[in-house]
Amino acid sequence: MSFTHFDEEGRSRMVDVTAKTDTVREATAKGRITMKPETLKLILESRMEKGNVFEVARVAGIMAVKKTGDLIPMCHPLNVTAADVYFYPDTEKSEIQIEVTAKLTGKTGIEMEALTGVSVAALTIYDMCKAVDKGMVVSDIRLVRKSGGKSGTYVRDGE
Asked: Which helix (H) or strand (E) holds 69?
């Protein structure tokens, strides 16, 4: 295996995907944000002063999927055709699971877009709630599934 974002002399480069065939590609990533039980209760009861935490974070996650090529240096700008952001609150663990699925038809994968969507959605939750809980923790951001392209389908064990 070699790193494709470096040339023979070790210089950074964007991978040339010109000759690749367009295929339908989809990726799902997950992550979590853990917080105080009181903070999660405020979110679930829609009592955060900055507004509806889930809807603002959902829009932020979708925007992040669309802007990944502007944020990650070697990512290609992609014509994303779908992005969904889901939140799964768990009161026993005092956390919110975040799941982002992104899709396109193109020459390169969309894994980074799904991962970026989860990251920004989690950071948006943090931003909207930091006035009451600066100790929140964003964690476990990972690719759980991807399909399409030359490498085919990937599913993370246990997901």
From this structure: helix 53-71
Integer Rg of the chain from CA: 17
Among the listed residues 22, 84, 127, 140, the single catalytic one is 127
Q: What is the pLDDT of residues 62-96, one digit of tens each?
A: 999 999 999 999 999 999 999 999 999 999 999 99
- pTM tops 0.85, yes or no: yes
Cross-strand bridge partners of residue 85: 100
Is 84 among the residues known to form the active site? no
Fold of 23-146: Alpha-Beta Plaits (3.30.70)
Residue-range domain boundaries for the chain: 23-146
The CB density around residue 52, as the number of other CB atoms within 10 Å, is 12
Which segments are annotated as binding site for substrate?
A: 74-76, 112-113
Annotated binding site: 74-76, 112-113
Cα–Cα distances (Å) from 154 to 32, 43, 100, 140, 143, in that order, read 21, 34, 16, 18, 9
Q: Are 47 and 57 in contact (CB under 8 A)?
A: no
Nearest to 67 by CA among 144, 23, 119: 119
Where are any strands of DSSP class E within the chain? 23-34, 82-90, 95-106, 137-147, 154-155
